[in-house]
């Protein structure tokens, strides 16, 4: 362990950690996926002069961008500014993040030779991210958690195979079903990369980790269980010894909630389609839930935001009554770029007041 990790004080008092572990938080914890990013003018000012991936590998910029929404909104957690493709880039895969599109892979991975040629992640190659975490922890207040994250193997595989964002995931599902042995080799390699990236962040001292399987909702429950769950389970098992809350999230995963809960996370992220108390009936008792305000509601004006925030808080209380060990307020997916940042600040104030 690094010195920072060893010197890190006990973090059980953090509202987010308390809610994730069944303790009583000192206030209702809230943070927002994609809270760092284009909704903030101070972010757009930095990005005017720095590329996305360049920013992700510059510790001072990562620290500054991670801190921006914490300063502005008084959220209970910072999320490391990075991207799910950062460890792939660090390993040496030729890719870029294109504004308005997302990750674009220069040479998509489609054959056995492509899979064999995939590089491994050398821990030293994400040293900048560990350094960034040290800077953030030195600046972050004592009551604010730092969340690290990684993309789950399936979501990473979908980008690598399709070559970029996809609507139907046809090539991904074709490999999964047409050549399950090759699929499993690819997923195993990506699982190793995900574990390596998370381990770097945990060694540097993050207080929680979130595994984003953003696009798992494209799968049937049967396919998820057969082709994805064993690999995601290995990720969660490998990081269990750090004893920090492990959050698992995907979009459109209402039909997968029970299976996703089965791979080992402590907290299940829920999108806006399933009310939190219904989510708990699917997940089962003993885990915390995170979510799930529809991100578009932040465009609907103060009265709607007020009503919807109160509804999600009430759903969260019903979720706890139904067996969840806690509720972490969040959106059902990320902050949209055109969101008025003041609407977010006011929503946080309201959530803390309830
Ligand atoms: O505040 C935070 O949430 C932390 C930062 C963060 C980013 N990406 C920054 C980013 C996180 C957690 C991610 C994860 C990520 N990246 C996911 C999982 C979360 C999710 O949204 O489901 C996925 C699927 C990606 C892949 C990716 N990267 C997409 C789909 C995009 C958006 C493309 C676009 O421009 O609309 C990106 C780019 C990206 N990642 C941006 C940011 C701030 C926008 C880049 C920019 O500012 O130009």
Report on this structure:
The N terminus is likely disordered. With 354 residues, the chain is an alpha/beta fold. It has a 7-stranded parallel beta sheet. Strands 2-3 form a two-stranded antiparallel ribbon. It is globular. The chain is built from 16 helices and 9 strands. The chain has one domain: TIM Barrel (Alpha-Beta Barrel). Helix 14 packs parallel to helix 15. A hairpin with a 3-residue loop joins strand 2 and strand 3. The structure holds coproporphyrinogen III. The site of coproporphyrinogen III has 22 residues, from strand 3.
**Beta fraction:** 5-15%
DSSP summary, beta strand count:
9
Report the bound ligands by name, code or SMILES.
coproporphyrinogen III
Main β-sheet, spatial strand arrangement:
1-4-5-6-7-8-9
User: Helical element count?
Assistant: 16
What is the string of helix and strand elements?
Answer: HHHHHEHEEHHEHHHEHEHEHEHEH
Look up the CATH topology.
TIM Barrel
Largest sheet properties: 7 strands, parallel
Q: Which CATH class?
A: Alpha Beta
Terminal-residue CA separation: 39 Å
What is the residue-averaged pLDDT? 96
The domain count comes to: 1
Structural class: alpha/beta
Gyration radius, to the nearest Å? Answer: 19 Å
pLDDT < 50 runs, ≥5 residues: 1-7
CATH architecture: Alpha-Beta Barrel
Shape: globular
């Amino acid at each position: 362990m690094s010195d920072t990790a060893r010197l890190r004080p006990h973090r059980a008092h953090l509202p987010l950690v308390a809610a994730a572990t069944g303790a009583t938080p000192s206030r209702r914890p809230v943070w927002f996926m994609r809270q760092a990013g284009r909704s903030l003018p101070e972010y757009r000012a930095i990005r005017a002069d720095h590329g996305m991936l360049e920013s992700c590998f510059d510790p001072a910029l990562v620290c500054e961008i991670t801190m921006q929404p914490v300063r502005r909104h008084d959220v209970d957690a910072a999320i490391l500014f990075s991207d799910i493709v950062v460890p792939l880039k660090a390993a040496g895969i030729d890719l870029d993040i294109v504004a308005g599109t997302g990750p674009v892979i220069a040479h998509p991975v489609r054959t056995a030779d492509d899979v064999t040629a995939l590089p491994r992640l050398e821990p030293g190659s994400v040293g900048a991210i560990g350094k960034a975490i040290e800077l953030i922890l030195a600046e972050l207040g004592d009551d604010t958690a730092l969340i690290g994250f990684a993309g789950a193997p399936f979501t990473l595989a979908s980008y690598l195979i399709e070559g970029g964002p996809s609507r139907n995931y046809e090539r991904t599902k074709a490999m999964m079903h047409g050549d399950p042995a090759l699929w499993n080799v690819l997923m195993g390699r990506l699982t190793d990369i995900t574990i390596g990236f998370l381990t770097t962040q945990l060694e540097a001292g993050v207080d929680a980790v979130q595994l984003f399987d953003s696009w798992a909702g494209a799968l049937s429950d049967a396919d998820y269980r057969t082709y994805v769950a064993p690999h995601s389970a290995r990720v969660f098992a490998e990081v269990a010894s750090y004893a920090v809350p492990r959050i698992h999230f995907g979009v459109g995963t209402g039909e997968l909630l029970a299976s996703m809960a089965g791979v080992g996370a402590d907290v299940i992220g829920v999108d806006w389609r399933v009310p939190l108390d219904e989510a708990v009936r699917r997940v089962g008792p003993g885990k915390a839930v995170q979510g799930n305000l529809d991100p578009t509601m932040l465009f609907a004006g103060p009265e709607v935001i007020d009503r919807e925030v109160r509804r999600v808080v009430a759903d969260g209380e019903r979720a706890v009554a139904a067996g969840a060990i806690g509720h972490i307020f969040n959106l059902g997916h990320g902050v949209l770029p055109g969101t008025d940042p003041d609407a977010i600040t006011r929503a946080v104030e309201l959530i803390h007041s309830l």
